[in-house]
């Protein structure tokens, strides 16, 4: 007997969504900073004609963030830019630099300085990697239940890891206590009095979309008519909206779909209620990077106006998406595959046809899926996909050929 199909997603249409979001703006400054970092290269943009054909759309593109600046996740883009801006703020002036060696020298007046973060895995490792590059200590708080492979990956960057009783929000609260003159807390979510660094994290993610626009043009493809983004606290979704739905200017204004675990659907719940809502934990989805109970207050003004639809999915949709992405050569972890998982759920044969009609999922649709991580839990990936993870995805050091 075949396994029962996963349940259809919970779908919330955002009646407050607009095409020009107040306060949203593009900035290319993060891209200029990222280009100075070791091993910078645009992440691949992969086309899948097989997925496009099966879904009955014109083109499907996957932005593959499985290896970014030497780490298996997009998070280093936000962490690196936020750390750079925070250091400049503490120095009190801009600096001239062309390499990490220059940057290390420039921040000598600030030493000793420790970087602190809370994480489900990827953000914390990114902060730890930047600390290692700049020869600074790092302390990373993780919620209890974090997979050992993710803890080991953070420790491999030289960071101290402390396990916090409770969920991701509890780890955030613990990290916030460490801020002082010799400590920088680098968080991708915000709280009262702490907004500057999360804003910089959002800005840092813009590099993904500047790259994607150039890559699409190089392939002779139009800009996407629909973008699907995994959602945790909403920082990446806010970056999508700042790039594709700025307050000023013309151009294509795509439909933006956010995807969350059904057990940690804090952004969906907030949009349904029209205010910030906390979904109590503990959250146990395999989409660990999306196990967030409260949206970022800094991201909220953008996601509340810019997300057109939010989809909350069962874990099985992520598993299916991981396998489909592996078939086209994209190694995507549980959280990274959520974007395709949400799209598959929306297009399931049992789904109401009104969903496709509202989202213009037809023969003219050009879809951009954000696959935000590689196999951050190699054993889990292999168990779900049914094959071993390619060696470079398991590497702690440098990806072969980089």
TrEMBL record:
GO terms for biological process: alpha-amino acid metabolic process. Transmembrane segments: none annotated. Residues 38-348 form the Tryptophan synthase beta chain-like PALP domain. Its cofactor is pyridoxal 5'-phosphate. One of its GO terms (molecular function) is diaminopropionate ammonia-lyase activity. Keywords: Pyridoxal phosphate. Pfam families: PALP. NCBIfam families: diampropi_NH3ly (TIGR01747), PRK08206.1 (NF006058). This is Pyridoxal-5'-phosphate-dependent enzyme, beta subunit. It comes from Acidothermus cellulolyticus (strain ATCC 43068 / DSM 8971 / 11B).
